[in-house]
Amino acid sequence: MNTQLFEGELTRLAPPDPDRDAEIESKWTHDVEYMRLLSADPVRPLSPALIKKKYEEAEKEKATHRYHFAIRTHTDDRLVGFVRLDHIEWNNGTSQVTLGIGDPNDRGHGYGAEALKLILRYAFAELNLHRVTADTHEYNERALRFLEQAGFVVEVRRRQAVHRGGKRWDVIKLGLLREEYKP
Q1: What CA–CA distance (Å, rounded) separates 164 from 143?
Q2: What residues are paired with 175 via a beta bridge?
Q3: Rounded CA separation 161/60 (Å)
C-alpha cells in the first residue's frame, strides 16, 4: 500500500506560502469568534505583512521545535486552515497540536478531521513521538468533542484560567498517547 504522508482524500498538508496565504490568513484574524476559539490571547487583527512575519518566525523554529502546515483542498488547492506541532520535546517525545479552519463556510466539511489525522500520523509514525497534547477552552464545546472523537482524553482542567465576555472559563488540556492512536 502506498500512502501519501501529507495527503488525504479532501486535503493535503503543505508548507505555507507567505505570498499567497498571508492575505487569506489576515482575513481570518478579523473574525473575532474564530480568534477567540483558537486562542486565549487578546483578539487582534493582523495585516498580511504581520502574517508574513509570523511565517518567517515559524520557519526559523521549524528545524527544532515546530512544524507548521497549510491545509489545502485537493479540488482547487485553496487554503482552508493550518495545523502545527509546537513545543516539540524530542527527549520526552512530546508535542502540542493546534489546528484551525479559518472560514466558517469551510468548517464541518471534514477538512479539520482529515488534517488532524494526517498530522497525528506524522507525529506518531514519522517523528516517533510518544504523546501529543491539545488545548481548548471550556466555551469551545465543538473543539472538545472533535478532539475526544479523535481519541484525545481530558487530562487537565485549569479552572477559571481565561476571562472572556465577562465570565471566567476553564482551559482544558487533552492528550493522546501513541498506543491510544488509531490510524
Answers
A1: 17
A2: 133, 153
A3: 30
3-state helix, strand, coil in the chain (%, to 5): 35, 35, 30
Longest dimension (CA), the chain: 53
Q: What are phi and psi of 170, to 5 degrees?
A: -80, 150
- For the chain, strand residue ranges (E) read 11-14, 67-73, 79-89, 94-101, 131-137, 153-164, 167-177
Whether the CB-CB separation of 153 and 175 falls below 8 Å is answered with: yes
Grid cell in block for residue 13: 498538508
Tens of pLDDT, residue by residue, the chain (183 residues)? 445 779 999 999 999 999 999 999 999 999 999 999 998 888 899 999 999 998 887 777 666 788 889 999 999 999 999 999 999 999 999 999 999 999 999 999 999 999 999 999 999 999 999 999 999 999 999 999 999 999 999 999 999 999 988 999 999 999 999 999 988
CA distances from 180 to 86, 90, 91, 148 (A): 20, 20, 20, 12
Count the Cβ atoms, other than its own, within 10 Å of residue 120.
23
Q: What cell numbers appear for 138 in the block?
A: 471550556
Output the pTM of the full model: 0.92
